[in-house]
Design a protein that fits this description.
The complex is a heterodimer of chains A (about 400) and B (about 130). Chain A has about 400 residues and is an alpha+beta fold. Chain A has helices spanning about 5-15, 45-60, 65-70, 75-85, 115-120, 135-150, 180-195, and strands spanning about 35, 90-95, 105-110, 125-130, 155-165, 170-175, 205-210, 220, 225, 230, 235-240, 240-245, 255-260, 260-270, 275-280, 285-290, 300, 305, 315-320, 325-330, 345, 360, 365-375, 380-390, 400. Chain A has a six-stranded antiparallel beta sheet, with no helix packed on it. A six-stranded antiparallel beta barrel of chain A has the order 19-20-21-24-23-22. A four-stranded mixed beta sheet of chain A has the order 1-4-3-2. The longest helix of chain A is centred in the middle third of the chain and has 16 residues, at about 135-150. By secondary structure, chain B is mainly beta. Chain B is built from one helix and eleven strands. Chain B has one helix at about 5-10; strands at about 25, 35, 45, 45-55, 60-65, 70-75, 80, 85-90, 90-95, 100-110, 125-130. In chain B, about 40% of the residues are buried. The chains are: A alpha+beta (about 400), B mainly beta (about 130). The interface between A and B is medium-sized, with 35 and 28 residues. Strand 23 of chain A pairs antiparallel with strand 3 of chain B.
Chain lengths: ~400, ~130
C-alpha cells in the first residue's frame, strides 16, 4: 500500500462516521450493476494539482472541471491494483470516468467478495460495479499474450498487436506482407488460447482483424537482400538525422518495399556522370554500421571509407552470386558506354543478377556499390563495375561508420 | 519514331507483322508490341530481372513478378515466333504466362531506353534485360 493509499484509508476510517455512506446500494445483491463508494474526501496533492492544470489547458476545459474530472483518479488506481492482488479470479477490468454524468466502472466475473467490496467502498468516488464480465482480467491477459504470439508467428504476418477489452474480450490486430486470411488467424489464436487456458478459454471473447499495425522498431544493417528490387543493399547511410540504406540507381526507385523486415522509402539517386547510386530511408528504425558479406549471414563492421586505388585488393558481396568475391582493382576511374562515370573496374568478373547495389569493401573500409560488369567486343566478360564510394556526396549521404 | 510506332500512336489497326525486326518496336498480327535492344551494350547491369511473360496495357510485352508488372526491353535478337510467343537468344522460347530465366538488367527512364517506347505502353520507365550469357 503506498503512502497515498494509506492516507486515504486512514482518512476514510476517520470520516466514515461523518459522511453518509454509499458503500453499497440497497438492491446490490439482486442486480448485476450497483454502486459503492462515495466515502471520504477526494485527495489531490500539490503535484497532481499542477498536472491537472496542465491537462486542463491541453483539453481546453476549466480548471474546476478538470479537478472534478480527474480528482480521485489515483485513489481509484491504487484500489484497482489492490483488487488485482486480492481477487485475481474475479476482477475483470476498470475504467476511470470522473465526470458528473458518468462514474468509474469496475467489472467482476460474478459478485465480488466482501474484501473487494470493502476496498471500493472506501473510495471517495462513487463507483459502478458491473458483475456481468465473462472472464477475469488475469485470464484475458494470458489470452492476449498467446493470441498475439500465435498470429505474429504465422507465415506472412509482419506485426501483430493485442488489446484487452475490459469485461471479457481480446482484440488482435495484425499486418501482413502476404495475404493471411482473418479466418486462419482467428483459428490460430483460438488454438493457442485453448492450449494455454483449457476450458477457461470458452469465456474469452476473441476478435481478430487485419489492420495497419505499426512495424516494430528494428536495427537495420547493410548487405541484405531487397527482393522487390532484385538487388542487394550496400551500406547503411545517414543524412543528418535521417537513416537509410544504399543501393544502385538502376534498381527501381520504388517506395514502400520491404527490406529485412522494415519498409523502405526511396529518397534520391545519382545517375550517369555522377555514378549509379540511390538511397532509401528506413523510417523510425535504427541502423548500425555493419553489413552482411557472407552467404551464411556473417557481418562485418565498416569503420571508414575510401575510393579504390588501381592495383589494390578489393572484395564484394551480393545475393546474386551469393558469395564473397575478391579480386583486384583495374581502372579506378571509369566511364562506361552507357555514360555512367565515377565507376571502377575490378577482376575477375564474377557478378551475377541480383548483385547490383551490393557493397564493395576491403577489411573494414567501404569502397563502392555494385553496378554490373563490362564485356568485350565479343560479349565476353572483362571486369566487374561499381560506383566509387566517394560519390555518396552527390546524394547527400555518408556511410555510417560508427555504432 | 519508327513507322510502326507512328501507326500505333495514331490508333490505326495494325496489320503489319514485323517478326524478326529488332531495330525498333516489333508488332505481331494481334497488335502486341515487343521491345528489344537494337544492339548489346558493353556495360551490363546486375539487378535481377525475372518473372512470367505477360501482355501489359496497350498490348506491350512485359513481365509480372514480385516486383510488379513492368515493361521490358528484351535482349538484342528477341523476336516474336509463329506460335505467338517470343524467342530470347540464349534463353529459349516463351509463351505468355511462361517464366523466363533470371537475367541481369536494370530500370532506366524512357529517355535512356535503348529503343523508342510507344505511347500506348503508358510507362515512365522501362526495365532493360541485358543479354543472357551464352
Amino acid at each position: 500500500m503506498n503512502r497515498l493509499t494509506a492516507l486515504c484509508a486512514s482518512m476514510s476510517l476517520v470520516l466514515a462516521a461523518l459522511v453518509p455512506s454509499h458503500a453499497q446500494t440497497a438492491d446490490s445483491a439482486a442486480t448485476p450493476r450497483f454502486t459503492v463508494g462515495g466515502n471520504g474526501p477526494i485527495l489531490i496533492s500539490a503535484a497532481e494539482s499542477e498536472d491537472i492544470a496542465q491537462v486542463a489547458r491541453v483539453l481546453g476545459i476549466a480548471l474546476d472541471e478538470a479537478r472534478a474530472r480527474f480528482g480521485g483518479q489515483e485513489q481509484f488506481a491504487s484500489a484497482i491494483d489492490e483488487l488485482r492482488r486480492v481477487t485475481p479470479e474475479s476482477f475483470a477490468g476498470a475504467i476511470w470516468r470522473g465526470s458528473a454524468e458518468s462514474k468509474p466502472i469496475v467489472w467482476f466475473v460474478g459478485r465480488p467478495n466482501a474484501e473487494a467490496l470493502a476496498i471500493l467502498a472506501r473510495l471517495p468516488s462513487v463507483v459502478l460495479i458491473d458483475t456481468t464480465a465473462v472472464a477475469a482480467e488475469s485470464l484475458l491477459v494470458d489470452a492476449q499474450i498467446v493470441a498475439r504470439e500465435a498470429i505474429a508467428g504465422m507465415a506472412g504476418v509482419v506485426a501483430a498487436e493485442s488489446t484487452v477489452v475490459p469485461g471479457g474480450g481480446v482484440v488482435v490486430g495484425y499486418r501482413t506482407r502476404h495475404e493471411v486470411a482473418v479466418g486462419d488467424a482467428l483459428e490460430s489464436a483460438k488454438a493457442a488460447i485453448r492450449a494455454k487456458l483449457g476450458e477457461r478459454s470458452a469465456n474469452v471473447r476473441l476478435e481478430v482483424r487485419e489492420q495497419d499495425v505499426p512495424l516494430p522498431i528494428a536495427t537495420v544493417i547493410g548487405g541484405q537482400n531487397i527482393p522487390a528490387l532484385g538487388c542487394t543493399a550496400a551500406f547503411t547511410v545517414t543524412n543528418g538525422a535521417a537513416k537509410g540504406v544504399l543501393t544502385a540507381q538502376h534498381c527501381a526507385n520504388t517506395s514502400g518495399i520491404s527490406y529485412d523486415g522494415v519498409t523502405l522509402t526511396y529518397i534520391t539517386q545519382s545517375a550517369n556522370a555522377d555514378g549509379d547510386i540511390q538511397w532509401h530511408a528506413v523510417g523510425p528504425n535504427s541502423i548500425t554500421n555493419t553489413f552482411r558479406y557472407t552467404p551464411g549471414g556473417g557481418t562485418r563492421v565498416v569503420t571508414s571509407t575510401s575510393n579504390p586505388v588501381s592495383g589494390s585488393a578489393i572484395c564484394f558481396w551480393g545475393f546474386g552470386s551469393n558469395s564473397t568475391n575478391c579480386g583486384t582493382v583495374g581502372s579506378a576511374s571509369y566511364c562506361d558506354a552507357a555514360g555512367y562515370c565515377h565507376l571502377f573496374r575490378a577482376s575477375p568478373s564474377v557478378g551475377q543478377p541480383g548483385d547490383s547495389g551490393g557493397p564493395w569493401y576491403f577489411g573494414n573500409v567501404g569502397k563502392g556499390v555494385t553496378r554490373g560488369y563490362l564485356t568485350n567486343g565479343l560479349g565476353f566478360r572483362v571486369d566487374d563495375l561499381a560506383t566509387q564510394i566517394g560519390q555518396l556526396g552527390t546524394i547527400g549521404v555518408s556511410v555510417k561508420i560508427a555504432p | 519514331m519508327s513507322r510502326a510506332v507512328k501507326l500505333l500512336s495514331g490508333g490505326a489497326v495494325i496489320g503489319v507483322v514485323l517478326v524478326g525486326c529488332s531495330a525498333g518496336p516489333q508488332i505481331d498480327e494481334d497488335g502486341r508490341i515487343l521491345l528489344a535492344q537494337p544492339s548489346a551494350s558493353a556495360s551490363r547491369m546486375l539487378a535481377a530481372v525475372d518473372g512470367t511473360l505477360t501482355v501489359l496495357d496497350g498490348g506491350c510485352i512485359g513481365l509480372t513478378s514480385e516486383q510488379g508488372d513492368r515493361l521490358v526491353v528484351f535482349p538484342p535478337g528477341t523476336h516474336f515466333v509463329e506460335d505467338g510467343g517470343i524467342e530470347i537468344p540464349h534463353a529459349g522460347r516463351f509463351a505468355v504466362g511462361d517464366a523466363i530465366p533470371r537475367g541481369g538488367g536494370g530500370v532506366v527512364p524512357l529517355s535512356a531506353s535503348p529503343v523508342p517506347v510507344p505511347e500506348v505502353c503508358e510507362v515512365t520507365e522501362v526495365t532493360v534485360l541485358d543479354p543472357y550469357e551464352s
